[in-house]
Design a protein that fits this description.
The protein is an all-alpha fold. It has one domain. The chain is about 90% helix and about 0% strand. It has two helices and no strands. α1 packs antiparallel against α2. The protein is rod-shaped, with a radius of gyration of 25 Å. It starts with a helix and ends with a helix.
Length: about 100
């Protein structure tokens, strides 16, 4: 069972991946359209430019994904620390209650 912060991380990563997949699909459709053009030189130049654009978009997506994963790791670490602090506080409160009651 995933905790809330893990679900958020997974959701962010899945959203980024869907965005990248959508962009790559749009670009693939555009490239297939170029295959239908009559001017080979024009199509080749467009394909080369599009390939460079795709590579840049992929690099950006990889950076964004890496950042999202880093943010998720940070959120998990923060959650672990918060949980530990809450457990310590609960234990201290229980000890205090025992001292008052006992």
């Amino acid at each position: 069972v995933l905790r809330a912060e893990e679900r958020l991380c997974v959701s962010l990563i899945e959203s980024e991946l869907r965005s990248v997949e959508g962009e790559l699909t749009r670009r693939g459709d555009k490239l297939r359209g170029y295959e239908q053009t009559s001017s080979t030189a024009e199509a080749k130049a467009d394909l080369e430019a599009e390939a460079a654009t795709q590579e840049a978009a992929l690099r950006q997506a990889q950076v964004a994904l890496h950042e999202a994963m880093g943010a998720c790791e940070a959120a998990k670490s923060e959650a672990a620390v918060a949980k530990e602090v809450a457990q310590r506080e609960a234990a201290a409160a229980a000890r205090a209650a025992e001292r008052q009651g006992g």
